[in-house]
Amino acid sequence: MLLSSRFVSTVRITGLVAVMVAMVFVGGCKRKYQAPAKAEFSPDDIKALVSNLATKRQVGFIKDIRIPSAENLGNVGPQAKEYGAIPALEKMAKDKDPTVKEAAEKALAKIKAGG
To answer: For the chain, what is the domain count?
Structure first.
């Protein structure tokens, strides 16, 4: 049985979110989740992170999935440019929420600086 690419993509996004939630629980609720700076991301992971920037949504107790997605894209570095991260982050940087805006600006700076 073949799985549709949409199903696989949904499973990947759900898996990324599960990892983020687990990391918050392991690290304690006081600490903000952020992937290790040297984390490895597949092209599908990067595409999922970029798609997360388009919509504000709550996942578990993570208020806005755009923030950790932007942080992780910053950790991806220049490779994120190939997947449309720059325009998506620039749009996100215009958000009214200062936390969202700051996350986008930091990610843009890291991508443009080379990681």
So the answer is: 1
Label each residue of 93-105 as H, E or C. CCCCCHHHHHHHH
C-beta separation of 74 from 49 below 8 A: no
Which residues does 60 contact at the CB level (< 8 Å), separation at least 6? 17, 21
CATH of the domain at 91: 1.25.10.10
- Tell me which residue range forms the domain holding 100: 5-29+42-113
Residues whose CB falls within 8 Å of the CB of residue 84, separated by 6 or more in sequence, listed in order: 50
What is the model's pTM?
A: 0.65
Residue 75 corresponds to which tokens in the numbers above?
């950790």
pLDDT tens readout for residues 68-102? 999 999 999 999 999 999 999 999 999 998 999 99
What whole-number distance in Å separates Cα of residue 67 and Cα of residue 71? 6
89 near 107, Cβ under 8 Å?
yes
C-alpha angle with apex 20: 19 to 24, nearest 5 degrees?
A: 115
